[in-house]
# Entry
Amino acid sequence: MVQAIGGGNAPADRLLHEPTACRHLQQLNTRAGARCPDRTWWPTAWVLVALLAGSPAWAHNLGSARLDQLPQQWLDEQGQALALTALAGHRVILSMAYTQCHHSCPATLARMLHMQAQLDARGEQASFLIIGYDPEQDSPASWRQYRANRRLERSNWHFLTGSRENVRELARQLGFEFWIYDDHVLHDPQIVVFNSTGMLSDTLTSATRDWLALE
Amino acid sequence: MPSIRIPGIWRCCALAFVLVAGSATPLRAATGTDQSATLADLQRKLDESLMAIKALTERVRELEAKQTPAVGATTPAAPAAAEAAQLEATEHRVEQLERADASRKTGDSGLPLHGFADVGAGTHNPINPSLKGFYVGNLDFYMAPRLGDRTRALFELNTEVGSDGTVGVDLERAQIGYQFSDESTVWIGRFHTPYGYINTALHHGSWVNNSLRRPRFLQFEDNDGIVPAHTVGLWATGARHIGAGKLQYDLYGGNAQQIVGGALDMRNAGSPHGNLMGGGRVAYQFGDGAVNGLALGVHAFTARITADSPLSATRVRTYGGYAVYDTDAWENIAEIYVFDNQDLDGGSGAHRSHAGFVQFGYRVPWGVPYARYERAVLDQSDPYFSALEGGGSYYRAALGLRFDVDLRSALKLELADTHLTDRSREQYGEGLVQYAIRF
# Structure
């Protein structure tokens, strides 16, 4: 049994003693018009959505990707220009991230750190690149702070900022699918490896075990 | 007469000529000119045209005959190196075209379709506690077309199920803006009112939110929220790096909301009384040391809000603050709101109310367990709250769990205990489950 005590300028019907479910339904029915927006145009909206759904999905051809074919104009976390071709000569491990990501980016970074440890054990050199998804949110200063906070201080790690166009073009070529939802970047974790000649070796998935064997 | 093969274009010209010439015929006929003379004139003109076409056709053949051997003659004589260079240049050009084409088809189309959806079940509906069982949540489409270096646009179209089970579509956000710099963007349209943290950090997509639902008093307007979640107006926003952190600021104004049918209405088409609302928010996000991930903010807004039933007008003054600690391990959020409202019509004077919540979440590899306590103590003699369906006081404690099924879907569970404390003294427990995806 519900005890309604109400008060102030509340409508009289709210002061009545009545079962809660009944009162809720009464209120909801009263407000049906306000709760449910005009439905005369929602079929139109669906048509619009259906048309938009025809937009092609991300298309990429990873088979032919080369480091020198990717956009080359980037700034590292120190604000210095860095071309990807400057890293040729040894392996390049590349991923994309954004500084406010607490979902999948930390796991991606952890995996890259593990890869670094594996390379260290073999005495092999490599460059690790993290390219920012959202240049409007993540400036070189943001990456510098990010790097310091996570103690990612090795000189072969680079956190890059580029123009929106370059970011999208690189993501397209390498198959990094993402979209920006306000301050969030919705993306899947992914790491790609280029061999010492700058050719794409593979895209690592959780199922990839022996990535060091990739050529 | 020998047959002449007339190219299509010349046939078109001849036809056009006949039509043009023919168009004059009725006029002549109308003036009484002899019809046979007209036909003879037309025949003569047609013959002249065909002769001209024949001459032009022969001229084209002559030119084509000259051009073909020339191309053929240079090819065998070209050195191998030049041929290779030409081939390489062609390949390069094709590659450029392919890249440009692919770019047009994907990112640069500017309008890929993305969004969120959720469904669920519970001992009570998470929004309408009088309902139980399975429910369809939201299907939310998000569009942010790219319009250039400076112009921004953002639209969020949400299909939602009303309390009576019918499906409606709401244009939750429709804003177009101009970015003056990284530190300043001005939006016009319908946007999420920048107060507190979650109203502009966690939008309509359930998947983005670690908890199963928003705090009750911060629900969207058509879900009985008591703070205007949307504003139709103008919003200036930006951020500036200061030290290791970032200062964020917002200033906005727009149509004052109205209470219609017990719910806040953000007046999409304008305010009938021309009432305006305005407010702002300032926050600082720390970037290093022990407080890295901590953000502190304050906010305030004021509006003259009228209600249709019972008729009332209230000067709503809301201010408050928030603290967020968002790191790789923690997602802790606390927000508080104070309402210093003034009854403008009824003479009941000033009223003070408050509401707030605190939520702790801990990120583990497979998801986020969380706990939340929320409370609203709302003066029921305040005409603003008494006119709102969701304007009653309450407190709620909840324990929840977000489990990431995969990268794009999450299963959320929540157990909650809610106490309504003034309009009705009622307590109910809830067991809720939600399946939320992004696409």
